[in-house]
Specification:
This protein has 24 helices and 16 strands. The strands form 3 sheets. It has a 6-stranded antiparallel beta sheet with strand order 1-6-2-3-4-5, sandwiched between helices. It is of the alpha+beta class. The chain folds into 3 domains: 129 residues, Cathepsin B, Chain A (Alpha-Beta Complex); 310 residues, ABC transporter transmembrane region fold (Up-down Bundle); 241 residues, Rossmann fold, CATH 3.40.50. Strand 2 and strand 3 form a beta hairpin.
Length: 725
Amino acid sequence: MKFTFYKQQDNLDCGPTCLRMIAKFYGRNYGIQRLRTLCFTNRGGTTLWNISDAAEKIGLRSLGVRVTIEQLRDVQLPCILHWRQNHYVILYKINADAYYIADPAKGLVMLSEKDFKQNWFSHKEMYDGISLLLGPNPVFYELEDDKSNDVKWSTILRYYLQYKQLFFQLILGLGIGTLIQLAVPFFTQALVDTGINTQNLQFVYLILVAQLMFFFGSLSINFIRSWILLHVSVRINVSILTDFLVKLMKLPISYFESKTTGDILQRMSDQQKIETFLTGTALTTLFSMVNLLVFTIVLVYYNTVIFLISLVSTILYILWIVLFLKRRRELNYKQFSIASTNQSSIVELVNGMQEIKLNNSEKQKRWNWEHIQANLYKFKTKNLALSQAQQTGSSFINQGKNILITFISVKAVIDGNLTLGGMMAIQYIVGQVSNPIEQMIGFIQAYQDAKISLERLNEVHQLKDEESADLFYIHELPKNKSISIKEMTFTYPGANTGPVLENINLDIPEGKTTAIVGMSGSGKTTLLKLLLRFYQPELGKIKVGKIHLSSLGYKIWRNSCGTVMQDGFIFADTIVNNIAVGAEDFDFDKLHEAIETANLTDFVNGLPFGLYTKIGAGGHGISQGQKQRLLIARAVYKDPSYLFFDEATNALDANNEKIIMDNLNQFITGKTVVVVAHRLSTVRNADNIIVLDKGKIIEQGTHFELTEMRGEYYNLVKNQLELGV
């Protein structure tokens, strides 16, 4: 049975993609997005436990085992293997010492037992590896396939329908170009047979002028076609990318927390591959196929024997190329692995030079790098040998064909069955018939890449928007702006992980400051993100006044919230644009108030262009403390009803912190403030302090009340505030 391969769409999709291939092997189609959700794939990838749990949800039995290579021969295949300690692949066949692997990142490859062991064994000193054994149970065949799993070219083709008149002109140009090329061999034959043989110079002039006119006509058509393609491709690119960005900005924040930057950028570049395929590769291949058909008919007209020789040699050429594909795939697999290791080694050497020199490990690290170069050299010699063998065979077939056709043509001329001009025309026609074959191979590869790109784009467009158009949202805050949380429980997606927050009951009064403290990992930031609607609670309710938070429009809620997160982002823009984010016209009174509150006045005045000084991407060129003060100024500039601070002053020195806290105490009068902090001097004056431990509220009260209790809060603060024991 042929094993169906799917390539992973994202860098961390190897687990769900393996499950998708195994489901397909047993006769069921599942979309990658559904499997990704079932596997709880996030920026950290997924675990074997999560893959097992997802497999059982779609009706597959699963068993995670650690087995030796001998025991692996007795298990049910295909199975999922934990590969190189950071990847998942499928073992779908074992034949003698050959192991057949479906690697979602690379393709179908065959490995020797030595290479297989190096990649699968957990450690060099261990002689077994981890595998997830899978097989269908009756429920598997009762569940329905994903209907939305098919690639929908219609979503992309609708962009091209807007320019159907221009595409008609392109196709018309292709037809005219084919006719011009078709005339070339007949001109050549007429030039030799009539012009030269009859010594008719006037006829030669006529043919040469005709060829010159045809050349200018073909050149003009190519120029016009290039301008039309540029016009269409640029407009289509902008349209596709704009629609993608619009969709991307409608997705919930949780989507971006589960995707790496590379995955999102990959999707943005996918439209370029699709556009190149449709406006470049597809049209060129269409033109080549038309040429192939037309010139094949002409070749049959000239000489049937030469046509058959050309046909047989083309088939042999294709078979010869296909014969090397498998071995080339294996070498490409190894090349990627070695190149990746080499790249990582160089980056590590450069980034870790300080530690290397401090620990006198220059020679050790250099020797490790030289060992990688030795492996790279061995690979290059194998690759060169294979390329030479493939090139030799291809050249032999092509040259053999050309020599044989030349011999038959010359013999036909000598025998009087073909004119000299006809022989020259045949040589041109044979060349025109051979070229499209190579282009067809490139077309197939480009189609596969475009299909994967389209799957990635379609997947994003099928996701639900953060604010569904089918639901009604309230776009005005209630008069009572107090926040209440009732019996709320939240668990991050993933199997075998307990609740991050459990049975939370909390009131955050309007106009008061509520502080949240606790050990790292107690759920403080998660609680803040739930209030900011990064996620939805698993159980329980969050209300603003008497309105459910989920009923409020996202924009009105976020407009009402000023936020300083631990990982707040600084844009590659001016100081003023980083503070007044999203504002078209600056309110300079509010701007100066924000700068003074965040104690940025001296910093801004010391810059060469003041407020209009540009900062590097991500805040490059400024300190962590300056970045944090910019984020505070950004929150203050909004003049919001709510302020949410997550470790807002942890990068500040004591002096700056005191000044900013004094300024903030004046600014927050009448505002509802939620502060998360480790530095407990920040929360000392809060109206209510919530103490979290392992996702539960264990204490709450004022600083004085909690220190008097001598409980968990007291243990947290006694060292920082030098309280008596």
